[in-house]
Amino acid sequence: MKISKYWLMVVISACVQTAVAEDLITVYRQALEADPQLKSAEVKVEIGSAQKGQAFGQMLPQVNASGNWSANKYTQRGQRGYTSNYNGTRYYVSLNQTLVDFAKFWEWRRASKVEDQYAAEAIEAHNQLMFDVVDRYFSVLEADDQVNFAKTEKQAAEKQLEQIKKQYAKQVVKVTDLYAMEARLDQIIAAEILAESRRVTAQEKLRELTGATLPATLNKLREGVDYQEIQGDLQQWVEMAQSQNPAVSAKQIAIQAAENNVATQKSKHLPVLDFQLNFYDTNTGYQSQQLISDTQTEVAAINLNVPIFSGGTTTHQVYEAQHRLQLSKNDNEAYMRAITKETSDAFLSSNANARRIRAAQKALESTKKSREAMERGYHYGVVTISDVIKAQQDEFSAENDFAQAKYEYIKNRIRFMHAIGSISEENLEEVNGWLEAINH
């Protein structure tokens, strides 16, 4: 019975391991459903729509109605005094329609721009999420490679150390060779510990996006991917980023909203004209005195309100709006410079990585041949163990550099697409096609 349970657990574990390998698109969809920043951006769009509706509603007719029922007792003192008990009713309906109120108009224009700003920010939040998924996904793969490189190098070093110990016991090698190999193994173990720590950090950053437990494995980069350089003129790409990037659009719309806010505050100095209709029905008069019969009053009026002096409040509200407008302009200028730098850096880095991949591949082939030659030379006593260790380090370094170049190329390419405002799910699909499923 115990054996059966054991094999049942083995089968379940194998099935789980087979199911947990995930590709880039799967992780992206998880993040799309769970990312709180994207959800907040979408909520802000709804808030902007509600604010716009509020501002527009202020320009529409305002209708109010009120009713009153009262029990009254009237007493008159004197020789002919008497007391009267009666019920009183009052009904009031009013309609007010703004005819001229520039402050309300400009406030509606400002709210409309804020809604557009939030919409652009929501697009940017989605773009940022796509970039973050790619960046953090491949950071995990890179960290996995670092750990695997360290483990492989450690295994090779341990095997070589055992050989040296046997040779030292036979007094074939010097004690310095033994110490050098032991020191190298200690360095590799320290590097492995650091790589393990970095992998955990990378995994936690990816988990931050999905809000779920990460799979045991992620699909790896396959061999034979054609890493092409980005074509085109850099200045044209920069101009595209400045015109198409949704974050830039949001900053520019924020300036327009701030300009409308200045107009709103200045309009508070202007007269306000509105139309009013009132209907009043009551059977009680001044101080709730009983009237002989019900009285109905209908009023149609045009009201003019001229602001004269508000203690300087309106003036300082204008000053505040003007300063906030300047803040928006400064913010936009700073972001324009940042996006120019980001586009240039991503473009140049991506193309440099494409060239680096080709160079690193050749370097890896050369260092492998050099390491094999050193090992043969050490076997025949031509070179020292230090020469072999150096050759091994060069090969592992070249292998690591080759892997890093590929990961950095992908990250920088997606960063470039994000900067110019052209990142899309199609880009993620393309990169996902560079992965291969893990066979367990």
Indicate the topology.
Blueprint: H1 2-20, H2 24-34, H3 36-57, E1 62-76, E2 82-100, H4 102-169, H5 175-210, E3 220-221, H6 234-244, H7 246-267, E4 272-284, E5 290-305, H8 313-379, H9 385-419, H10 425-432, E6 435-436
Antiparallel strand pairs: 1-2, 2-4, 3-6, 4-5
Structure description:
With 440 residues, the protein is of the alpha+beta class. Helix 2 (24-34) packs across helix 4 (102-169) and helix 4 runs antiparallel to helix 5 (175-210). The protein has helices at 2-20, 24-34, 36-57, 102-169, 175-210, 234-244, 246-267, 313-379, 385-419, 425-432; strands at 62-76, 82-100, 220-221, 272-284, 290-305, 435-436. The longest helix is centred in the N-terminal third of the chain and has 68 residues, at 102-169. The radius of gyration is 38 Å and the shape is elongated. A hairpin with a 5-residue loop joins strand 4 and strand 5 (290-305). The chain has ten helices and six strands, in the order αααββααβααββαααβ. The protein has a four-stranded antiparallel sheet, with no helix packed on it. The protein has a two-stranded antiparallel sheet with strand order 3-6.
- The secondary structure category is alpha+beta
Helix-strand string: HHHEEHHEHHEEHHHE
What overall form do the CA principal axes indicate? elongated
Distance separating the two termini: 28 Å
User: In oligomeric terms, what are we looking at?
Assistant: single chain
Percent of sequence in beta strands: 15-25%
- Total number of beta strands: 6
Give the neighbour order of strands across the main sheet.
Answer: 1-2-4-5
